[in-house]
């Protein structure tokens, strides 16, 4: 993990948040390369969900959430972790993360009894602070998908099975944030709520587990590093009938990358009006607050049906860490040297190609390089960088380390014969390519 953290800081992927004021625990900032990689991960997910499935629609809902939503979702009463205090050193821990009930700081067993600690962040709304003018920062993106169910059904004429996808921030007041960006207090989720006919939920659940494994593998996270964890009944979230967690071999241990849950009709059933007229399977809290019926009318029987929900829910930050971990390698070179390579899949690379002038002060070479960069940038395939440091060797090393799939060097011959040298990150092989063909060449290598 230390090597990854060091690379992230050195090359501008991730910084400790608020670092110049001593940091803010459990928060990280994504730097120039980090934001590109993160956006590429999110775009790959969005594409695979919304663009590749005509029955999945997108949503970008608000983070600030009406407390009634989180009352009826069950989060106000159940979204907590067991917390203990160490009486000897006054540190605070999540009870279920302590081995042998020992304080992780001083080793003492003189701990308080565990008590529930609600993980939701509350914030006041409007200019006057009062007990009843507050909102929550959403603890998962899912709830606003459920509250928008009727809006989306009505506006897009959807019928089951169909899904609603959302990517966005979620906030949890984790008792012990740790392991870099693995467990933080502000993070992003990529969540799909897939609505199906009751009875078709179990087969659909299995198929989403398969689809999600395939997607991670397409991002470079090999299925051999992921194990499926059948969450036992006593660990299931309050809304779940069955959850399969994708457990990845993170640098600090095997932990959850994504959870795929069968949420039954719990959520729509919890947020709907007229619960008594609907044959709900889940045990829900009475709702006299909602003004919408969250159900679909069966066209033949005219009966209102509350769909079941299958939810693949992945963390962007955990995905980022897994992808970085898979791509990172240190290679031995001839002559006892080493190079660090980030062998990212090209569609995820923060920089798609670097154009490097051989001489940084030769205006003809720099101008030609700049023209090539502009031409490639117009392809709209991601960031193309003009790397005018004047040191080809250093340029190659830097771009190996940040995962740039190809470097294009413009030299004196380029001015004569309109060709450039293209170097491949992984094989380090070089070939001469005509400038006329460079766009087609780059598209072929990157897409
Ligand atoms: N809507 C379901 C849900 O939120 P979850 O298992 O609590 O389920 C889903 O969270 C995913 O969100 C996790 O698999 C993980 O990738 C990510 N996640 C959860 N808590 C996190 C945290 N504190 N820091 C980073 N990622 C987190």
Describe this structure in words.
- The two termini are 30 Å apart.
- Helix 2 crosses helix 9.
- The model has no long low-confidence stretch (mean pLDDT 94).
- It is built from 13 helices and 24 strands.
- The chain is of the alpha+beta class and 447 residues long.
- It has a seven-stranded mixed sheet with strand order 3-10-11-17-14-13-12, sandwiched between helices. Strands 21-20-22-23-24 form a five-stranded mixed sheet, sandwiched between helices.
- Strand 13 (242-250) and strand 14 (253-264) form a beta hairpin.
- The protein is globular.
- Glycyl-adenosine-5'-phosphate (GAP) is lined by residues 140, 142, 172, 174, 183-184, 187, 189, 191, 256-259, 311, 313-315, 317-318.
